[in-house]
Design brief:
- The complex is a heterodimer of chains A (350) and B (169).
- Chain A is mainly alpha-helical and 350 residues long.
- In chain A, 53% of the residues lie in helices and 1% in strands.
- The longest helix of chain A has 29 residues.
- The relative contact order of chain A is 0.16.
- By secondary structure, chain B is of the alpha/beta class.
- Chain B has two domains: 83 residues, Fe-S cluster assembly (FSCA) (GMP Synthetase, Chain A, domain 3, 2-Layer Sandwich), CATH 3.30.300.130; 70 residues, no CATH class.
- Helices cover 25% and strands 21% of the residues of chain B.
- The chains are: A mainly alpha (350), B alpha/beta (169).
- At the A-B interface, helix 5 and helix 9 of A face helix 3 and strand 5 of B.
- Chain B: This is Ring-1,2-phenylacetyl-CoA epoxidase subunit PaaD.
- Chain B: It comes from Agrococcus carbonis.
Chain lengths: 350, 169
């Protein structure tokens, strides 16, 4: 990306697109531009200690061995670190004590991974968004998505006696089932908005349909999630309109963002044999396309963006492959950062 | 009167009162009962089972609420206490008590303006939100996402104070 403005300036430049707003006397909150570095995630408070520790463990030692070693090390290095069994909410899936079938678990894993990976991506923006309110908004959206991920992964884990944490922290890259859209880098703020827009419109269609699932737990999780996703969609629609209708620069960036993220859209709507087996437990992905297109087209029309401005016939749509464990090069580094704390200090709490 | 009741019924009623008095850690003027988070208290073969529902899926306060309910009940002498969570039916601000709304406003947080069912359509129609400090309706939404997931961030154009609004959900 050829960034001439940082994201704070981009947002400021796009300000005129909000005619209803009176003079806001918004404080200048420009920050150093670091939109492309994959710096430590704020949710890993002990990562400094971890990187200062001896070289990483070999990958094949079991959790108990790693635990014992690092418990000793942690007790030595940090007097206040407690290592204990995680006492997470056990019943945050829709129906207490419901057990997922293998197929439903695989489906829940896909949706849970989408939410988890997007949440991890959005969390990066905290302290880096163009304005303080946006730090909070993206943080709130990430928190909602993390809640959806917890419910879905907890439910998925009931089929194999694994906890939500086992699934989030102890699976390797090829075991993740997220679509490529969610693992793409944040890019600049306009890229994050473009990805958020595609994701939120899709999720709203998906969760609306999933409330009719014959699987009571999936239906309950969907009914909870759809109310929250509605806020996310509204938020990214507002930013799309604001950037597209702002300055030449903000519009140009919005179009670049859409151009770069749009190729990952089709993967969300591809049916595969799992959906045949699920029957009434889940909507077929292809059945969500018409509803998505209707909202998408309405947003673009209001933003005065034509399809030709962000699609390139030579590029087309990505083949993806995330649903079967084939991922882009971006997922590995994300997982390394997300999982390092849990793997270095198994069972750590703070 | 109390001692004449069946012990089991009396226990549940008492346990319900204790659980209902636990406050929201984020908005300590509201009890979990005011908030509509306390869904059920029952006696399951001698175990007091309390059912809570989270406001938002990712609300970090829910674990604290569970711990506070457990502590409050064990402090009252209950030995076997369990807290369950349920997602269904999904929480709505329609369950917030009128007393709770009044307490919120007094605390400086604008309460939900209307019932959740009244919001519809792709572009939500927003009602004027009254400033909890000066009462003016000349306010504007700064951000749909406030200090917690359940609140949006407003500013008052009359007294110029920022405030939280407990958003209709």
């Amino acid at each position: 990306m050829n960034a001439q403005l940082n994201d704070a300036e981009l947002a400021e430049a796009a300000q005129p697109a909000e005619p209803a707003q009176p003079d806001t006397a918004r404080p200048e909150t420009a920050r150093p531009e670091t939109p492309h570095s994959e710096a430590a995630h704020p949710a890993t408070p002990h990562s400094e200690a971890a990187t200062a520790a001896p070289p990483a463990a070999t990958p094949h030692r079991d959790a108990a061995t790693v635990n014992a070693e690092y418990e000793a090390e942690a007790a030595d290095a940090h007097g206040d670190v407690t290592v204990d069994e995680l006492d997470l909410a056990a019943e945050l899936s829709g129906v207490p004590s419901a057990k997922a079938t293998a197929d439903v678990a695989e489906y829940a894993l896909r949706l849970g991974d989408d939410a988890l990976i997007l949440s991890q991506r959005l969390g990066w923006w905290i302290s880096r968004a163009p304005e303080l309110e946006e730090d909070m908004a993206l943080g709130n959206i990430a928190l909602d998505l993390l809640g959806h991920a917890r419910s879905l992964l907890h439910y998925a884990g009931t089929a194999s006696d694994r906890s939500e944490d086992d699934l989030a922290y102890w699976r390797d890259e090829h075991e993740f089932r997220c679509a490529w859209l969610f693992e793409q880098p944040n890019g600049d703020f306009a890229h994050t908005v473009a990805r958020g827009l595609i994701a939120a419109i899709w999720m709203q269609e998906l969760y609306t349909a999933l409330t009719q699932s014959t699987d009571a737990s999936l239906a309950a999780i969907a009914a909870k999630s759809v109310k929250e996703v509605a806020y996310h969609r509204d938020h990214f629609v507002q930013w799309t309109l604001r950037l597209a209708g702002g300055t030449d620069e903000s519009r140009r960036r919005m179009l670049v963002g859409l151009t770069d993220l749009w190729p990952y859209t089709d993967e969300l709507f591809r049916d595969d044999p799992l959906h045949d087996r699920l029957g009434g437990a889940a909507p077929r992905p292809s059945s969500l396309r018409a509803g998505f297109d209707e909202v998408w087209d309405a947003v673009l029309a209001e933003a005065e963006i034509t399809v030709e401005e962000f699609t390139n016939p030579k590029i087309g749509q990505s083949s993806g492959g995330g649903r079967h464990g084939n991922h882009s090069t971006h997922l590995g580094p994300l997982l390394a950062e997300m999982q390092v704390l849990a793997r270095r200090h198994p069972g750590a709490t703070w | 009167m109390v001692e004449q009741r069946q012990p089991r019924v009396a226990d549940v009623e008492h346990a319900r009162r204790i659980a209902a008095a636990v406050v929201d850690p984020e908005v300590p003027v509201l009890t979990i009962d005011d908030l509509g988070v306390l869904r059920d208290v029952r006696d399951e073969d001698g175990t007091i089972v309390v059912t809570l529902t989270p406001t938002y899926s990712g609300c970090p306060a829910i674990d604290q609420m569970r711990d506070d309910v457990l502590l409050a009940l064990t402090a009252e002498g209950y030995r076997d206490v369990r807290v369950d969570f349920t997602l269904t039916p999904a929480w709505t601000t329609d369950w917030m008590s009128e007393a709770g709304k009044a307490k919120l406003e007094q605390y400086g947080i604008a309460p939900p303006t209307h019932r959740a069912g009244e919001r519809s359509g792709p572009i939500p129609l927003s009602l004027g939100v009254k400033c909890p400090r000066c009462g003016s309706l000349r306010t504007r939404e700064v951000s749909r996402f406030g200090s917690t997931a359940c609140k949006s961030h407003f500013e008052c154009l009359a007294c110029l104070e920022p405030f939280d609004h407990f958003k209709v959900h």
